[in-house]
Amino acid sequence: MAFSPAQRRYNRTVLLLSVLYALLLFGAVYLLSRQLVSGPLAYVVGVLPALPVTGFFVAMGHYLLIESDEYLRAVQIRQLLIATGVALAASTIWGFLEGFELVPHVVAYVWPIVWFAGLGLGACVNTALARRAA
Questions:
Q1: What's the mean pLDDT in 77-81?
Q2: Is the CA virtual torsion 117, 119, 123, 125 positive or negative?
Q3: 52 contacts 15 by C-beta, under 8 angstroms
Q4: Does position 1 have pLDDT exceeding 80, yes or no?
């Protein structure tokens, strides 16, 4: 299947953001683990890897705005809703268990990772539904 112009733009954006994320993450780990920066600059360096991740969310929203194919947009929305449901349910359940001291603390950046895994689950659901309809 050929990609729509909106999908091509989205894919390019995500690829660029992924490279930027890797570079910023490795840089932040290097600088902060060796205590080469401190004070306010350490906070700036610590935030830098989060910016491309935030960019992923913006890119997905932008894709939905510019995708002219209603079917492709609906399929992507279903995938995003599944991912959001998975991440919100998992973080809520874990939060209660953590609050009752039944499970260890989990750093907050785990939840976007769970959300991205939910995107994979959503893609599987979309594939299964498309096969069933065919």
A1: 98
A2: positive
A3: no
A4: no
